[in-house]
Structures are given as structure tokens and as C-alpha cells.
Amino acid sequence: MLNLPAVGIDDDFFDLGGHSLLATQVVARIRKVNDGGRPVGVMDLFTHRTIRDLAAFMASADTGQRRLLYELTKPGRAAALTYVCVPYGGGSAIVYQPLADALPDDHALFSVAIPGHDVGLDEAALPFDELTTRIADEIRERVTGPLALYGHCGVGSAITAEVARKLEAADRAIEAVYIGAMFPFARPKGPFAAARTKVEKLRSNRHYASWLKSMGVDTDEIDPEQADRIISNMRADSRAAEDYFTDLLDRRAEKLRAPVISIVGSQDPVTDYYAERYAEWQFLSDTLGLVVLDEAGHFFLKYRADELAEIVSRTHPAIAAEDTAELSDRGEDAPWDLRDWQRVGTREASTVRPSMGRFLAVALGQLIATTGAALTAFALPIWLYTRTGSVTDLGLLWALALLCGVIMLPIAGGVIDRVDRRRVMLAASTASGAVQLTLAGLLWTESIQLWHIYILVSLSQVAASFQRLAFQSAVPQLVPKRYLGHAMGIAQLSSGFALLLMPILAAGLLAQIGLRGIVLIDVAGYVLAIATLLLVRFPDLLGWRPREPLATAILNGLRYSWRHRGFRLMLGYFALGNVFLAPALVLTTPLVLAFGDIADVATVALAEAVGALTGGLAMAVWGGPRKRRMIGVLCFNLGTAAGCLAIGVHPSVVAVGAGVFLMAMSMALAQGVYSTIVQVKVPQRFHGRVFAINQTLSWSTLPIGFALLAPLATAAFEPMLAPGGALADTVGSVIGTGEGRGIGFAYVVFGVLLAVVTAGGWAVRTLRRFDTEVPDSLPDDLVGAQERANRLARHRSVTMTDLSPEDDAAGQGRDTESEVVVR
């Protein structure tokens, strides 16, 4: 493990380079061979660091209940301040060793070993109340003098908050409560929230392992069984923390006397909106502080321990003395700053507060409007094809809808970042309603022309881009941010159910009231959405803001991805595959209408929706392959090709439905595995830009398939598969002849071409071995350190360029770099 030629019996494990992950591996191996002996945990290895001491410990008798607090600083020092620190979910007490090493000599640090977290011990997890009571009792017994608490992430923050409450209830004074990388989070009430929680529990531990790796914690070095246990503990801890905060917020418990100080990384997605979210701790304390670590990610306690030590030793004395100027204005090169602090009542409260009721009202209006739009989007292509019988017209409609929607996204993002989101949603809903009302008028007067449809669909997609992005951005503004994850899940869940039921509903409505009636329903949905937006006031708080504009993200994503041949090949592979996938998406309606009716089209669309849902759920439960993920993408793309083949071989609802189910399921699985690849191979802060460039490049080829290949294939193959056609006696003897069989053959051809493209990708070693050819990403905090160093270097270079010759001469003999930074 240590990669050393030899280790002496009295060599210190940690002095030789051992760390928390290696310690976990050591105790896991000891557990396998130590049958019947005294169990050894990670903190036992920390306490007994040599082979001699550890052997003596294992040979000694078990002394019963283990303590919970372990001192990580040198014992016996006279402590001017003692910290008690609680690790994050699934974490060992030893994760605080870097912080302990960085503290001033007159500070002591105890870390909490949470029962059930140590992979070397068969300990049962304690109920939350019993655990916090034991920690508080041990602190009162063992820690004297000034005391500060620190908790990191979800479970660390919850345990720390409750321990602080119990200590103050026992009249034990606390200097400060520091909470790292987390704000209070809770579970809203209602059936949608309960359903979302149940769905979340289905997620595989592999999903969380990939997420942890993107954030800076790699569990691949640990035995898979032990890694699974650690992640299971983390998930259980997170649920317990959510239950605790939910209960604490509901009963409005008595506040702490100690200040609560939030420490966040500026690039940590878990603590987005920190400028306002830190104030949510007002339910726990009347004195709050916010400290921001420049370019830090989620696990800064490991990678930024020196700055963290400075923060926890300097911030609360400055707040207590109301002398925060030095911490708040530390200059551009400062690695951290006290961004804000307040006492309750020093700021005027907003008159309009976020609430789940406010969010649900707006979300319901948007859901009804988007459902109406989806009904029209389903019915209009069917209506158009039954009127014109032209695949060219249908393909152009799909191409225009895609192009207008995608091209408008960067513009919409820029506008939404600068304009009130409620106004954008009102304008977009009004524009969409006007477009649909115009379409209804043209249909009712029977004066509609093909060019009318193209223009109206294009305008509708432009408005939809603004509406969709504005609503997504407004969700954090409408809902209390402690419920943000659930609110996003509720919106996705409701949209998913609408998508699932829409084909059957649209087919029934199209048969009963026709396209004119459906468009009027669409108009009524927008009227309701507009009325809701007029009645509901939006809080004057932060909504979602991207870290960079969408156009900038696309350009940066291109720069990032183009640096490595593997990423270039992957982007090219997806773009080429989508050329042949696009016709398969547009030709389903003509194919089914050749032998069936509108109800059959709806049945096939429902099979497609169920396939996509099945693939998404399977990916959530399974989590994707642990290794060789790109091979997984290639295999699922072969499944997509097989689905195309199945669609074309037989003119029946069962065959086509089975084919679209397989195709949609395979696409969802491939997309899920690809997302995992990005998580593992790309630092977390760059995920958005890489996804943006992939979507832009891969979607850029879809219009070729929609508007060119689909019409050409239909025009070429339909005559060949007609009775007496060129392929009637060969291919026709297998897949049949007559109307629609040329489209069926087109599916076979495009399925074969997709398989050929995938086989070509398989043949390219760099693409096939993507997991080994492309290294895993660096921990996000290390990437942040590099980003910060590069930014400061650019700043210094610019500043030095601005120096006049007189300035430069005056600077001789001084620390020029320091002078430049000050300037």
C-alpha cells in the first residue's frame, strides 16, 4: 500500500505516508485475517501507529464501550481553544487530521468517531438522539476551557447543531459553531415529495461513488464491499440529517447563544446561493457569519486545511468584537474572506417570502401550459402528415423546431440572467399563447398554409426556450432553498408523468375534437399560466444563475474537450451517430399510419415513453458499469441500433412498439453512462461546459437527418418496396411490400448504419479504452487551486504591464510581486 521496500516494526504508519483511505484499507485487510481477535478500527490504527503498538493492542483484552472523541493534536498541550469536529456522512474521524496539523500550537482538536462508520468494526449505528447525547456528555467530561464546534456537510452539520443545543442546555459555553459546506436542508410535506424520496432511495451506490469522485473523494482504491458500506452509511446519514432539520424547523426550537458561521467554497454546487442561504441559520442562532474560500470545492477541509485553520481561529473572535474589517477586505489575492455577518434584525426582511405554496402554484400553471404545448406538439405532426403525406414537410418541421429552440438558448440565457424572471415567463407565455391562438384562428377559418405552420412552430420554440429556462431559473427564487432539491425533483417528476400520459391523451383528443380543439386547450393552458404569474408575486431573492453564460460555456467546453484526443473522438462519434438516429425519430408517425391509425401512433409513443422511463430507472438502480464505461455506451448504442432494426422488420403495433421501447431504453441507458463518464473524467466545476458542448455538437447533426436523410430514404425506398418494385422479391419477402414498407426498410438501413458507426467506434482503441486512456479528474479543490493560481498570475501580469517606468524604478529593491498585488 505504501509502496516501500521495507517497513520496520517501530515505523510510524502516518509518517511513512499513510492517510485516511490507506488506513481504511489496512483495517479492512486486518479484519479479513483477524478471525476471532480483537477488532481494529481506523482510529485504533491512528492511536497505535507502529506494528509493535498495534500488535500489542490486538493482543490486549477488549475494554468495552469505545469512546467517541479522539484527540488529533498532540495530547497534553495547554489549549487556549479546543475544537470538536464531526465528519461528513460515511467519513472517519481521521479526516480532520490535516486541520489538526494546521492549527496554532495553543489549539487542540478532537474528532468524533461515529459508530457504524469504521469499516474495521462491527458496530451498530446509534439513533441520532443517543449519538448526540453521548457526544455532548463526553465533551463535558473531557474538554475544559473555551470550546468551538465544527461540522462538515449534511450529517456533520446536523450532529454539530444538536450537540451544540444539548451543551448549551447544560450550561456549557460555546465560542462558535462552524458549519462547513452545507446549509440546512429539509423535506417538504405532500405526496409528490414522498414519491420523490422513494425514487431517490432506488438510486444505486455507484451513482454516489461517481458523484463523490467528481467532488474529490475516490472510493475506487477501497475494497468494493467496504466502499459500498461507506456510501450506504453516507446515504443513511444524509436521510437522518434531513429528518433532523425537518423536525427542528417545524417545531422552531430555542436558538443557540453561540454564533453560527458558515464556511463554503465558492465553486461548491452544494452551497450555491450562499450569499443569501447562510441567513437560513437564523432559526438556530441570532448571530451569523459567512466565510467564502476562493475557488474551493466541497472537500476543502482536506485540500485547504491551512486556510480553514486560519478561518476557525480568527473569525468568531472578530465577530464577537464586531471588528471584521480585516477579514472582510483582504485583497484580491486573499484565499478567503469574511463575506458577510449579521445579527437578526439588522436587515430589513423581504415582504415576499419563498414558500412551497408559491412554488406549487407557479409550477402547476407551468405544468398545465407545457402539457397543452406537448399535446399540440404531438398532434400537429400527425395532422400535417395526414394532410400532405410528405415526409419532407414533416422533416423540415422537426428540423425548424430543433434549430430555433437550440439557437435561441444562449440568447435566452443571457436575457434571463439580466431581466426579472417573472416578466420573462409572462412575456414567453403570452407570446406562446398568441402563437397558438393564431394557429387556432387559421385552423378554424381553414386558411392555414404550410408556411404558416413553419413560422408559427419556429416562434413557438423560441418562446418555449425562454419560458423553460426562466422557470428553471426561478425555482430557487420561489421555494425555500432548504427544499430546493425536492422542488427540482417534484418538477421533474410531474413533467415525467405528463410526458408518459400525453400520447394516449393526445390521441383521444385528436380523434374527438381534432387539432383545432387541441390548440384551443393549449391556448387555455397558457391563459391559466399567465393568470397564475399575474397573481403570484416573486420573492426578491436570488434565482438560479449559471457560473458562466451558455455561449461562454460552449466555447470553454470546446477548448476543454478538444485538448484530448479521446474527447474529440467521443464528440465526433456522437455527432456522426445522430445523423442516422435522427430519421428514426421522425419517421415513426408515417410508418405507423401506413398500417394503423392515430390510436396506434399513440400506443407506440407510449411505448417509447415507457422505454425511456425504464432506462432511467434501471440506470438509477444499477448505477452503470464500474469500469469500461465507454464500452457500456457502445453496447447500449448497439441496443439502439437493434431497436431501429426491430421497428422496420414487421408492420405491426407490437413490433414497432417493441422496437421503440428498446431504442428509447437503450438511449436512456447510454446517456446515463455517458453522464457518469463526465462525472468521473471531468472536474465538477467543468461539467456544465462539457455537457453544453456535447449537446451542441451532437444536436448540430440532427437536422441533417430530419430534413435530408429521412425524405431521401423514403423517396428512394418506398418505390423499391412497392409490389413489383426492385426489392420486392428480396427484401420485401422478409419485411413485406406495400405502403410504408420503404419506411420500414429505411429503419433497417439506419439501424445497420448505427451499428456500423458503433462498430467503428469500437475499433478505435482510444475511444474503446476511454476509461484507461483518459485519466480520472483531479479532485475539484486541486483544480480550484490551479484556477486560482492562473487567475492571480494573469492579474499580476496585467498589473505589471500597467506600471510606468517611474513606478518600476521606484520598486527596485522591494518585493515587486507583493507591491503588484497591492496595486
TrEMBL record:
It is found in: Cell membrane. The chain crosses the membrane at residues 359-384, 396-417, 451-471, 483-507, 513-536, 569-595, 601-623, 630-649, 655-677, 697-717, 743-764. It comes from the Bacteria. Pfam families: MFS_1, PP-binding, Thioesterase. Keywords: Cell membrane, Membrane, Phosphopantetheine, Phosphoprotein, Transmembrane, Transmembrane helix. Residues 1-62 form the Carrier domain. Its main location: membrane. Residues 794-823 are annotated as: Disordered. It is a multi-pass membrane protein. Residues 814-823 have a biased composition (Basic and acidic residues). SUPFAM superfamilies: alpha/beta-Hydrolases, MFS general substrate transporter. The keyword Lipid metabolism does not apply. CDD domains: MFS_MefA_like. This is MFS transporter.
